[in-house]
Amino acid sequence: xxxxxxxxGAGGFFAAICVKENYPKANVTxxxxxxxxxxxxxxxxxxxxxxxxxxxxxxxxxxxxxRGLKKLKKIFREFNNLDTMAWFESRGVKLTVQEDNHVxxxxxxxxxxxxxxxxxxxxxxxxxxxxxxVTSIIPDQNKYKLQFKNEAESPxxxxxxxxxxxxxxxxxGLAWLKDLGHxxxxxxxxxxxxxxxxxxxxxxxxxxxxxxxxxxxxxxxRSQGPLLITHWGMSGPAIIVLSAFxxxxxxxxxYTFKVQVNWVNEVNNETVKDALNEIVKANSQKQLSxxxxxxxxxxLWQYLILKSSLPPSKLWSELGKKGINKLVTLLTNDVYxxxxxxxxxxxxxxxxxxxxxxxxxxxxxxxxxxxIYFTGEVIDIDGITGGFNFQxxxxxxxxxxxxxx
Length: 405
What we know:
A hairpin with a 2-residue loop joins strand 7 and strand 8 (143-148). The relative contact order is 0.18. By secondary structure, the protein is of the alpha+beta class. It has 13 helices and 22 strands. The strands form 6 sheets. A 7-stranded antiparallel beta sheet has the order 17-16-13-14-15-12-18.
């Protein structure tokens, strides 16, 4: 049996190794369009490779994926994050779990993961061919013919094919799969930060607020967590998660919208008002600038005072109801104009790809082309940061590699 893996990324290598271990007599070949393999693995996690996430709950695992939640539960029961950790450790890759549940190799070096894959391929006799982009797949009786970009190269025949090409920033990059009859969900960016070119809060770059609630005005989109102010706008887990769950909505509005920030992580305004009134009682003779509610970062608190048009030298006892209400509004519903986005670090993740309607998730086989399987980000599955995108690649590759019909 001849098996082709199209794409030399994380999912492609994982699938190739699993295929060969499941079918030792199979001839397995990885075709990579560029001159290097596993490039995304190399840069992920700041060069450390966030292999997966150590959450012990399947429900929590699924909640990290904005799309396909119910369907993902089934495949994670077959191969989940704990299985991934066991898989790597059984191959000599020692892992460590951070406080935030992010999982890295103990070496803190992504090359450890790359070496694990390359050594396994060498040991198992898996071929890896570089600079050989596949442009089309042509049915040929009971096999498939791969056509390459260099038309002078002879097509090659395979019994089974696993597509592991990763996400495509443009729909045109998925046209060859659409031509086979697959439904394609238009790709749009996910995991990005918010640009605020007209907001002077960017002068506070470097300020981090550990517990915030962030929402998109006019939608039901909301997330919680740390927020980082940058020289271009806002970033941090709260923003990145919001970008993932709002990927399509924010694309439709051309990344021009209003973001609402609750700086104190408290949804009940009356509770915040009571807290400020307690400050008035206990610190009546202190100036606003000298007492920070909710232990907010000093630079942010000074900024919010000025934004409220209240004098920094004003005493807490002099605020009155209007002053208290002004501060409550700013602390719980501070609004900023967003105009544009910026890719988050080296992460480039797309929402979209081959529709889950075109894939049997129990086998990862195409519903329109027998013996063609899918894995990784080429599918319309994407997660938030924290090892979840790699996990979906490992899971779908493990299932695809069983080559079930």
